[in-house]
């Protein structure tokens, strides 16, 4: 339906776009080499099928086409990267505050400015140390190129550096080789290539020297081409290089990574929002204070300096450092949970992830073919079927620490491992019945045969291959029964049932001979066979993934499978993991080509599985979800996943099976390759954001209390300020650091994974948060002024009234903030429910702050420095009573909120 609707409209657009790209990128890049006849390929590349290029021609082409290397983005210098950190609005406000602080004190009081500058520099250094950009991904891509390649030049085989390959070179490939460039196959024998890193195909792809394929053939189905940076797993070939460097498929991916900008994280957006609010508030404070001073006929310069000082006090200069440290602590906690975070803000981004786009091969599955079904014509022939599968096999079996280790084609290793599990050792069987002859697998016959001597004399031909092809060559079933049309239909039905379960099915058969024929060929060895059975295998899902998927749905997170594998296989795996549910749809990359991005953005929520997709498709899917306002996490391990990992809000690469390219483009690496780890990471991300919000809540509410105290004292023209500058500095030191950091390590609250992801674009001050800041800040300020008035007019001696009032206000404000830190530990739960002393870091922060404050209140030398005086029992009682009042009030508010069931009650 999609195709028929859009085909006519898009064909012209696609042709124009393709022509434009060919002009821009050059013929060698965009020519559809897989669709041309061999003679056309050789003609266009001006090379010889037998002799290749001459050395002189190769040298000339390097000058024209460039080295077979990937381009790297220009690396920014350390100074430029450091200055780039200064663009943040909060940093700019802090730098302005430092300058104003120096100016307001006539460059005498430099402590404030130094503290601010140290915080800014430390914050920038931490950010630079943690961040990784596309340069690492490109460096990893370069490392994937083989250092030497076997090339035919001037008719002779030689080895040259991979970087010196040019289009038109003839290369020779053998099992184990890393393909050095994109190339068209000219001739091959039993050639297979592992393209999983590029296409997501879970098993090696059989290659052949085919003539032109359809021009729109997907990358994974171009059987007459080999792709740069893939691995030859079997056979040999001669191929002509069609593209090098940035013109290769890997180069195209590198270009996608280079062109993709870093995604701004939700936390960065929230911090920018706070910076704007604080900047606006500071300007308002300055304007109001200055206006009040003019109305009171005070000295203009004095009022301006007072307004500037108050504006500086209004800025929580420790906030960027607190947020950075809380994120760093979260990173350390994540490492213990098998997740390495490379960018600090990525920790918090996980907390609002609402979609996880996951690659299938190696991420949701084990990336290891396994026999899961075995059907035999005669029930007692199970061992015979496994024996044939193990003998007609090129897998190498070795033992390490007593355990069998297989090396070879994944399909063949699955057969050897299945036999080994039932006590059939391939090495022992080959010793007893060694291979005397073989007919290698090829794509035309779709069969492989080996010949072995029998213990009683004669020979046995072991055959495995495509069931339909094998059945046509069989005359009987094991056990002697003739293979009639009805029995053939039964076997084909079993094959279809396995295929519907997305199993890769192989048939096994044999033929006994008294003596070998003179001519050993398919006609003499692979006819009149005895059919034994069918073997079904699959790359099975990871056992822990199904539970992780269920947790995703419970947490309001949508898991989506994006894979280069076939649609049938992908849907079967997704259905088993319950990613694909009733009402969900699956779509292929071929259909996506006919779907405009606007339509994909509208329909993206309908699709749970995307199959046979390219790197560009993955990026389109990620961006379609982002267009819907979703925060997207992308997991993957292959080169083909790298662009989407970069484009996603948070890219999660697999640490064990993941390629260096995927790791370089990602924000987080799962060291155990466990999909379930990302669910744990999401839980931690939600907890970390909640803790950052608690720290912001604490710092801003306390600062509001400080501002209100000074503001009201100025408005009502107190003859003495409740707090002097040195006390304000001390107050910030005691209350703005350790308690806020302690809130950053608050344990994740229960039920956090039962909530829906928060809206990444939602204001930090939504859901009554701004109002809570205000009323709690007003409460702290009024309690401080109450202490001041009681000290000034009620409790103290007339001669000591001002000094006592100042001391009581100073003591009350400091202790009030220390106690208030306990209130902020949970927005809803009672302090007594979560445990008053359950956060050990908070207990220590409180004790340290209290000891420091008591020292300046009680130790005579410090009393002189901080202008405090001794207080009597009554004054101490008032101070302590006022200091614990926030705990009582906040607990009462929380209790009312719980009873009324209103989460946003304030």
TrEMBL record:
Keyword check for Lipoprotein: no
Q: Where are the transmembrane segments?
A: 89-104, 110-129, 277-297, 303-329, 695-716, 769-791, 845-867, 873-893
What GO molecular function annotations does the UniProt record carry, in alphabetical order? ATP binding; ATP hydrolysis activity; P-type calcium transporter activity
Alphabetic keyword roster: ATP-binding, Calcium, Calcium transport, Ion transport, Magnesium, Membrane, Nucleotide-binding, Phosphoprotein, Translocase, Transmembrane, Transmembrane helix, Transport
Record's InterPro entries? Answer: ATPase_P-typ_cation-transptr_C, ATPase_P-typ_cation-transptr_N, ATPase_P-typ_cyto_dom_N, ATPase_P-typ_P_site, ATPase_P-typ_TM_dom_sf, ATPase_P-typ_transduc_dom_A_sf, ATPase_P-type_domA, HAD-like_sf
Superkingdom: Bacteria
Protein name per its UniProtKB record = P-type Ca(2+) transporter
Protein's organism: Lawsonibacter faecis
């Amino acid at each position: 339906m999609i195709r028929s609707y859009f085909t006519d409209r898009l064909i012209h657009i696609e042709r124009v776009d393709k022509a434009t790209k060919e002009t821009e990128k050059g013929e060698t890049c965009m020519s559809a080499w897989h669709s041309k006849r061999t003679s056309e390929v050789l003609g266009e590349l001006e090379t010889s099928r037998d002799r290749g290029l001459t050395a002189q021609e190769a040298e000339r082409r390097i000058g024209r086409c460039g080295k077979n290397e990937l381009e790297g983005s220009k690396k920014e210098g350390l100074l430029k990267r450091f200055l780039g950190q200064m663009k943040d609005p909060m940093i700019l406000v802090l730098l302005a505050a430092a300058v104003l602080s120096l100016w307001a004190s006539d460059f005498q009081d430099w402590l404030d400015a130094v503290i601010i500058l140290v915080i800014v520099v430390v914050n920038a250094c931490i950010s630079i140390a943690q961040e990784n950009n596309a340069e690492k991904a490109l460096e990893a891509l370069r490392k994937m190129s083989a250092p030497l390649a076997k090339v035919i030049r001037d008719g002779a085989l030689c080895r040259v550096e991979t970087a010196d390959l040019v289009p038109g070179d003839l290369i020779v490939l053998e099992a184990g080789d890393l393909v050095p460039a994109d190339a068209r196959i000219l001739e091959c024998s039993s050639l297979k290539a592992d393209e999983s890193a590029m296409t997501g195909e879970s098993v090696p792809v059989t290659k052949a020297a085919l003539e032109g394929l359809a021009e729109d053939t997907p990358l994974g189905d171009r059987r007459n081409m080999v792709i740069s940076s893939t691995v030859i797993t079997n056979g040999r070939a001669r191929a002509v290089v069609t593209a090098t460097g940035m013109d290769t498929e890997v180069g195209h991916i590198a270009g996608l990574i280079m062109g993709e900008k870093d995604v701004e994280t939700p936390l960065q957006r929230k911090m920018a929002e706070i910076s704007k609010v604080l900047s606006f508030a500071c300007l308002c404070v300055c304007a109001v204070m200055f206006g009040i001073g003019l109305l009171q006929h005070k000295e203009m310069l004095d009022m301006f300096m007072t307004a500037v000082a108050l504006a500086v006090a209004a800025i929580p200069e420790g906030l960027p450092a607190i947020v950075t440290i809380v994120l760093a602590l979260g990173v350390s906690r994540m490492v213990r949970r098998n997740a390495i975070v490379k960018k600090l803000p990525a920790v918090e981004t996980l907390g609002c992830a609402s979609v996880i786009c996951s690659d299938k091969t190696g991420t949701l599955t084990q990336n290891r073919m396994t026999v899961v079904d075995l059907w035999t014509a005669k029930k007692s022939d199970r061992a015979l079927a496994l024996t044939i599968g193990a003998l007609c096999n090129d897998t190498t079996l070795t033992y390490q620490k007593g355990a069998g280790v297989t090396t070879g084609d994944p399909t063949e290793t699955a057969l050897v491992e299945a036999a080994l599990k039932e006590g059939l050792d391939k090495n022992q069987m080959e010793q007893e019945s060694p291979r005397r002859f073989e007919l290698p697998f090829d794509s035309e016959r779709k069969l492989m045969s080996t010949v072995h001597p029998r213990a009683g004399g004669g020979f046995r031909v072991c055959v495995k291959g495509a069931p339909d092809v094998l059945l046509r060559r069989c005359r009987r079933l094991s056990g002697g029964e003739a293979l009639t049309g009805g029995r053939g239909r039964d076997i084909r039905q079993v094959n279809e049932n396995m295929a519907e379960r997305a199993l890769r099915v192989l048939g096994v058969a044999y033929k006994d001979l008294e003596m070998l024929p003179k001519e050993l060929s398919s006609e003499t060895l692979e006819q009149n066979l005895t059919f034994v059975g069918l073997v079904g295998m699959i790359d099975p899902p990871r056992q822990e993934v199904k539970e992780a998927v269920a947790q995703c749905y419970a947490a309001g997170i949508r898991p989506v499978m994006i894979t280069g594998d076939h649609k049938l296989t992908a849907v079967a795996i997704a259905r088993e993991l319950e990613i694909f549910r009733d009402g969900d749809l699956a779509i292929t990359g071929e259909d996506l080509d006919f779907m405009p991005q606007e339509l994909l953005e509208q329909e993206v929520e309908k699709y749970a599985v995307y199959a046979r997709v390219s790197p560009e498709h993955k990026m389109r899917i990620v961006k379609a979800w982002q267009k819907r306002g979703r925060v997207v996490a992308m997991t993957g391990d292959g080169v083909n996943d790298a662009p989407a990992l970069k484009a996603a809000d948070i890219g999660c690469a697999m640490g064990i099976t993941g390629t260096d390219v995927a790791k370089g483009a990602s924000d987080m690496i799962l060291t155990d390759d466990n999909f379930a780890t990302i669910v744990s990471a999401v839980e931690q991300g939600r907890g970390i954001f909640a803790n950052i919000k608690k720290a912001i809540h604490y710092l801003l509410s306390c600062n509001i209390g400080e501002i209100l105290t000074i503001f009201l004292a100025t408005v009502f023209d107190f003859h003495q300020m409740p707090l002097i500058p040195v006390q304000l500095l001390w107050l910030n030191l005691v209350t703005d650091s350790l308690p806020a950091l302690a809130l950053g390590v608050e344990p994740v609250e229960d039920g956090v994974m039962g909530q829906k992801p928060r809206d990444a674009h939602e204001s930090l001050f939504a859901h009554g948060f701004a109002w809570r800041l205000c009323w709690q800040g007003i409460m702290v300020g009024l309690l401080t002024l109450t202490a001041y008035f009681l000290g000034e007019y009620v409790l103290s001696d007339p001669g000591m009234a001002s000094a006592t009032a100042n001391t009581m206000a100073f003591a009350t404000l400091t202790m009030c903030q220390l106690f208030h830190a306990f209130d902020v530990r949970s927005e809803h739960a009672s302090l007594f429910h979560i445990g008053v002393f359950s956060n050990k870091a908070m207990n220590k922060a409180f004790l340290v702050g209290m000891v420091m404050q008591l020292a300046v209140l009680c130790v005579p030398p410090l009393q002189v420095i901080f202008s405090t005086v001794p207080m009597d029992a009554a004054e101490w009682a008032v101070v302590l009573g006022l200091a614990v009042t926030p705990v009582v009030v906040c607990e009462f508010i929380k209790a009312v909120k719980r009873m009324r069931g209103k989460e946003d009650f304030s």
